[in-house]
Amino acid sequence: VFAVMFMAMFIAILLPIEPLTTEMKGRLSPTILDMFVAIVSGIAAAYAKSNEKIIGSLAGVSIAVALVPPIAVAGIGLGWGEWSMFSSAFLLFITNLVGIILAASLTFLMLGFSPVSVAKKGIFYAMILVAIVSVPLYMSFTKMKHDIDVQKALSSFNEPIKGKEIRLENIVIEGKQVRCEVIASDILSKEEKSELKALIAKKVGEDVNILVSFWYEL
């Protein structure tokens, strides 16, 4: 874990370019759904390891795919000095790790590799870790669901202002910031823009910073 993380950190420090790729972004928003994926992966990996008919390296490859990318992204976050990037990626790594450990332990137990009296302590600790990690994951899932609901509400925005037709497109929600394109049938006055801002804030349901670009239909 430390080898991968610090190697990624040093590479990030040495490289002058800092592009945030789609693969990196995919490791920065862990939710409770990732825990379910990790549990399923752990079951599959444990079963593959216990079955002689399945290639032995398959389990190791599946675990490496689940664990190494988030550790590498966490290391890049350290190299760039981006604490939020590091914490989000490292949370995904911990999620995958504890999910795989718990699921694999239960799978090996059911397959008869260890008696319950011996395995129960380790499984108990793993369940505690899963419960602890699930708290921020559930909060992240709730935030994601809220953002999706807000995007749907804004996408269906159809409230004319003083006879001017307005719709919103390319909506992006990041924390307390909403960015979108406003397509209007005519130029909006300062008062009309203030009214539009109030309508958008009402749809969002909280105090947010709203950034828009205006497009006018000819």
Structural description of this entry:
It is a single chain. With 218 residues, the protein is mostly helical. Helix content is 66%, strand content 11%. It has seven helices and three strands, in the order H-H-H-H-H-H-E-E-H-E. The chain has a three-stranded mixed β-sheet with strand order 1-2-3, covered by helices on one side. Helix 3 packs antiparallel against helix 4 and helix 3 packs across helix 5. The longest helix has 40 residues. It starts with a helix and ends with a strand. 26% of the residues are buried.
List the helices and strands and how they pair.
Elements lengths: L1 H13 L7 H4 L6 H19 L6 H24 L2 H28 L5 H40 L10 E9 L2 E8 L5 H15 L4 E8 L2
Parallel strand pairs: 2-3
Antiparallel strand pairs: 1-2
Helix pairs in contact: 1-4, 3-4, 3-5, 3-6, 4-5, 5-6
Low-confidence stretches: none
Rg computed from alpha carbons, rounded to a whole number of angstroms: 23 Å
Oligomer: single chain
Assign the structural class, choosing from mainly alpha, mainly beta, alpha/beta, alpha+beta, or little secondary structure.
mainly alpha
Q: What's the number of extended β-strand segments?
A: 3
Helical content (DSSP H or I, runs of 4+): 55-70%
Mean pLDDT: 84
